[in-house]
Amino acid sequence: MPFEPLASDFYGFETLLNGQEQDALMRIRDYMEGTVRPVINDYWERAEFPHELIGSFLETDVARFPFAETRPFENSAVFRGLVSMEMARVDASMATFVGVQEGLAMGSISVCGSQEQRDTWLPKMASGEVIGAFGLTEPLSGSDSARGLRTTATRDGDSWVLNGSKRWIGNATFSDITIIWAKDSADDQVKGFLVETSSPGYTATKIDRKIALRPVQNADIVLDNVVVPERMRLANARSFRDTAKVLRLTRAAVAWSSVGVAVGAYEAAVAYAKEREQFGRKIAEHQLVQDLLAKCLGNITASMAMCVRVSQMLDEGTQRDEHSALAKGFCTSRMRETVAWAREAMGGNGIVLDYEAARFFADAEALYSYEGTREMNSLIVGRAITGKAAFV
Questions:
Q1: N- or C-end of the chain: fewer Cβ atoms within 10 A?
Q2: What dihedral do alpha carbons 142, 147, 149, 154 form, nearest 10°?
Q3: Cα gap 266→364, rounded to integer Å
Q4: CATH number, span 13-127
Q5: Mean pLDDT throughout 130-153?
Q6: C-alpha span between 366 and 363 (Å, rounded)
Q7: What's the whole-number mean pLDDT along residues 154-174?
Q8: At the topology level of CATH, where does 240-386 sit?
Q9: What's the mean pLDDT in 87-99?
Q10: Would you list the domain boundaries of the chain?
């Protein structure tokens, strides 16, 4: 199909992609528009995940571009970012599913696993044969995960025994494996483990009554003397610094997804403004509505520009933690502002799912908080600015 840049890509960043990447982006756009958009409001309202779409969804190759620091990327980081944006502009929940599967779970194996672990698990996960989850956050440990993890791993011969709990773990009610991060009771260092969810002592319970990302099946996980063979310990995860390598890469992807959420709300508002009549004419002709839409587009364009540059730096090998942290904190803040303006432009209809802005408005709250709150990302950037850590 011919390449058609989005009207909301006001400065034409999508034209930076090569022809092969443009074709792949259009395949994903066609799938999201034709298959996901018609059904996702219903799943969102019921808080159910569209499991039957996983196979066809992964056939678009969205999970075939795994993060890695041990080998060159197969596609540009700008392309992978635009894929995240493209998914999120239709539905942030499906973008989150891929972010967990391809970014956090596969990314942990790519960055921290041995070659054998990569060869064993990544092909199965890319095809959807194996679904993954990522267990870092705990009931009493979120922003302070670097120091505050309470889940423990104790060496016992050729195995490890894991005890503790995790919270807000996406995909966890139906994952086949979960990457569990735990403190080694011997050296107090954080290590990663590939835990099969069928293991005795492992339980996952869905978190209900959410107002955001309702199709995402977040879970509370309990680990009660879960035995994990040494071969399932991530070979190159020796401390939280290794965990942070994964988070640095996925944090930029969340920034891209937040742009997608802003775009989705903005596009819904533009379409509505062209149809809705008040005071005898379309509200698209009203100055105050145009002002709201122009401010939305300004936020989107500035955020997209930041994401493009951060992705280029990743390809160049110059991206650091503070670069992805600034992008995540800034873009999610501008997203939150943009979805509110888009909803405002639609008046009372802006809170009804049928007009879509309401879903983006609610989902924005989850993206604003996960993968590092705005405050924590500000402190990462502040440390880079001043040379002083101010985390406590």
A1: C
A2: 160
A3: 13
A4: 1.10.540.10
A5: 86
A6: 6
A7: 96
A8: Butyryl-CoA Dehydrogenase, subunit A; domain 3 (1.20.140)
A9: 94
A10: 13-127, 132-232, 240-386
